Structure formats: structure tokens, C-alpha cells
Amino acid sequence: MNDRRLTPQARWALVLASLLLAAPALGGILAPEPESLVLHAGGRLYLGKNAAILGDVGAHESVSIDKNASVQSVYSGGALWIGKDSSVTGRVHAAGASSVDQNLNFTGGTWSADSVYFGCNASIQGDVLSASGSLDIDRNANVQGSLLGNGDLWIGRDSTVQGDASPGVGRSLRVDRGVTIEGSTAPEPVLVDTLHLTEVPSGGAHSNGSQSLWLGNNSAEALLPGAYRDLGVGNQAQITLSAGVYDLHDLWIGNEGTVTVDTTGGDVTVNANSWGTGNNFDLHVVGDGEFVINTYSSQGVWIGNGSSLEATINTYNGNLRVGHNVRLQGRMTATGDISLGDYSEVILAASEGGSGGGGGGSSDVPEPALALLLASGAVLLARRRVRRPTGA
Q1: Nearest-angstrom CA–CA distance, 62 and 76
Q2: Which of 87, 126, 344, 350 is most buried, with most CB under 10 Å away?
Q3: How crowded is residue 276: how many other Cβ atoms within 10 Å of its Cβ?
Q4: How big is the CA angle at 13 (ends 10 and 16), to the nearest 5 degrees?
């Protein structure tokens, strides 16, 4: 048939069909709400072994989680690695490769990454998606969902898949002995969301006073709001902060120091160039107000082993480093990296909330171009039979 005899509508249909067939299998934009992230790193995020994170976490470069850790949703702008015997109860998405050691317990609904590897004995409640790379599941896995990839798919021996197990079009499915697949194994493309993490802002310069203050060991002091230079607090000292703003150059609090933040008269904010604590430091809030600590230099923040604190911590232009056995209640952001030592715990304040284990702290925003194509060519898209995961 001569193309010049086609009607304008038919010509548009041909163009649309060619675009759909050539387009990558992209879904919508996965955009976690910033307030749902209890830890948000502009660089890398590292969680030590036995860390317990009662909230969602995200990092723009990569996420590494050591063994025996528990976390809700995880969002990585790059690679994701999780150690053995860990538990994830929320949505997982990595723009790069994701690799998990043995004995994973995942109950978050959807796990998606550029490529996926799960070690042996994985328990998976939800769908697993690979955007372009391979999807590999080692032996003795129990998948209560589907395995959907745009690359090759391998399932290790004695594994069970209660849903579909579909490799990409033109890619291979390799199944070891003793594998049970209850759904379809037909190769089909799958739609995978694109992650969009809100940028962690870089803070500007701040002013501070010219007079430094040193509070000795075992001292007790009620410190008034105002501008100081350096503030040093000795070991086992006790200080009280009240409603207002404290502008400092550097802040250091020694071992077993105690800070009481009294917000009954209003919020309390500390602005500092950098700050750090010794071991077994305690900071607690009295009242219904908010306590915020902002730092502005590349020196960042250090919180010593065995410490406990309630705060919103914004680390602009630097890294936030936390020792072992630390309990944090609040939200922590850093323009650079965030690292938590072994056996540390992070929870959101009672007035805040994360995904609650179900990925509710994020939203799927349709790609504008894809939304236009879908609106214009629903019939053609149906013929192509591009699949979305059941949990999307």
C-alpha cells in the first residue's frame, strides 16, 4: 500500500507504533516523599551490622547495609548491597545493581533494580523486577510474587515461585532442579519505574559570635540563646538549652554529657560550623517544640558510641558519622555521606511517619512522554502486552 494514500490518523498510528516498539520499558517516576526518609544522604549511605531503622532511607550514590539489619523502604540512586540475615519491610528501588546475601526476608511488595541478585534461602513477599540486567535467585528461595525482568532470569534449585517467572524478550530463563513456577514463563517486557530523590540542599554560610565558652567536667549550666564562637562541654557535664537560636562556630560535648532541650517556650535551633560528641552522650527534648541542629562545613558531624539523642539533624556540605550502639530519634540528612555504626537504631519522632512498611512514603508520577503515548495509543500498547508488576 502506498504510504501517501494513508489518512493523517493512520500515519500518526504508524508513528506511534514505531515509538512504542522502540521505547525502553520504563514506568513512571518513583518519588519518595522527603519527609518519609529518616536517613537521606546526598552521597553514600552505610548501615552497620544489626542496625534497626524504623523508617525509610535513601541515598543518591549508593546504599550498603551490613548483616542482621532491619529497615523499611530503601531507595538508592546507584548500587544497593545488603548483608545476610537482613529484613526489609518496605519498597526497594536501586537505579544500579542490587545484591543481597543469604537469608533475606523481604515483605515490601516491590523490589526493583537495574539488576538483581538474591543469595540462598531468600523469602520474598512481592514482585521482583530487573530493568535491564539479569535477575538471579539462588537456591531454596520462596517467592510469593513474580520475577519479571528485561534481561536473563536464573532460579536456583529447590526454589518456589508462586507467580510468573518471565525473562526479557529474546533473553533466557534458566531453572535448576526442583524449581516450581506456578505462573507463566513467557518472555515479556516489564515496566520499571525511574527513581527521583529530592536533592539534599547545600547550606550557605552562617554567622557566629566572637567569644568562646568552656564548661568544665561535671559542670551544670543553663545556656541562653545567642551568638558564640566555640562551645566546649566537658565530660559528665549537664547543660540546658531553651527556646531560640544558638549560633556557634564549633560545638563539642564530652563523654557522658547530658543536654536537655527545653522547647516548652518554642522551638530550639543550633547552627554550627561543625559539632561532635564523646561516647555515651545523651540529648533529650522536653516540651512539644522542635529541636533542629544545622551544620555548614565539610567537617560535618560525629556522634560517639553509646549515645542517645532526639533531633532533626541537617548536615550541609559535609558527612554525618555515627558510632556504635547509638539511638537516634528524628530525621537525619547530609549533603555528603551518612554512616551508622553497628547495633545503632533510628526511629522517626512520634509526630512523624514513614512508609509504615508498605511503601506509602512514595508516589508514582507518570512519565509525561509515556503518559502521552498511553493516552494516544492504548490499543497499540495493549497489543504489545508490556507488563506491569502486580504490586505497582
Answers
A1: 5
A2: 344
A3: 18
A4: 155
Distance CA 317, CA 336 (A): 6
pLDDT tens for residues 119-151? 999 999 999 999 999 999 999 999 999 999 999
Rounded CA gap, 104 and 76, in Å? 18
Rounded to two decimals, the pTM is 0.85
CA dihedral 172, 177, 179, 183 (to 10 degrees): 40
Query: What would the grid cell of residue 153 be?
Result: 532470569
Distances (CA, A) of 49 to 41, 53, 69, 357, 359: 19, 11, 6, 20, 23
Q: Rg of the chain's alpha carbons, rounded to an integer?
A: 25
Tell me if 214 sits within 8 A of 387, measured CB to CB.
no
Maximum CA pair distance of the chain? 93
